[in-house]
Amino acid sequence: MPLRLRYSPASPFVRKCRLAAAVLGIPLELEPCDTTDPTDSISTQNPLGKIPALLLEDGEVLFDSPVIVAYLDHLGGNKLIPAEPKARFAALKLEALADGMADAALLQIYEHRYRPEGMQVQSWLDKQAAKVSRALESLEANPPSEALTNGAIALASALGYLDLRFKGEWRSGHPKLVAWLEAFKAKVPAFAETTVV
Questions:
Q1: What confidence tens digit (pLDDT) does each residue in 146-192 have?
Q2: Contact between residue 53 and residue 6 where contact means Cβ atoms under 8 Å apart
Q3: pTM of structure
Q4: What whole-number distance in Å separates Cα of residue 19 and Cα of residue 26?
């Protein structure tokens, strides 16, 4: 019986888990989730009511995406998270940076989606946009290696989310990151398969 992933197709954190599973050859059964529906079982599966959540055969539920990716990597033979300390912490740091960038992008979307017009806080939007900009500048100045790690998968997922929600505006002025993402796409066919349009 495959592992079951509670998901929404546009989530960058769900996509990260799906890409990791695809790279590792681990089948996932996708179960749609509506985190805005108080009757959705996600609130009992994950007390935070967030996706992704991975439902294991024994009834245990894992969340959120860094934990799920680490678990999938464990099942798949430890191919994504390096064992050597320097490479390991570089990959974990990249994952944290990419996840933080995706979080800041998502918070901007939520500000527009859940606050009525006229109640949106521009200073909050600006603060989140600045986090994304700083992360992009940092990555452009020091592009990650092309090693296929948890960090690389998180970064590809975050950049894909910026393409989806912000019309790819990040691409202008970040040619090294664009080239990095193109190289990632060529190595990981599941990236195209998980693209939401």
A1: 999 999 999 999 999 999 999 999 999 999 999 999 999 999 999 99
A2: yes
A3: 0.96
A4: 10
End-to-end C-alpha distance for the chain, whole angstroms:
30
Rounded-to-integer distance, Cα 49 and Cα 38, Å: 9
Spatial contact of 133 and 110, defined as CB atoms under 8 Å apart: no
The Cα–Cα gap between 45 and 30 comes to 15
Helices (H), the chain: 12-24, 42-45, 65-75, 85-114, 122-141, 150-166, 175-187, 190-193
Q: At what angle do helices 150-166 and 12-24 cross, to 10 degrees?
A: 140
The CB density around residue 177, as the number of other CB atoms within 10 Å, is: 19
Write out pLDDT tens, residues 30-54.
999 999 999 999 999 999 999 999 9
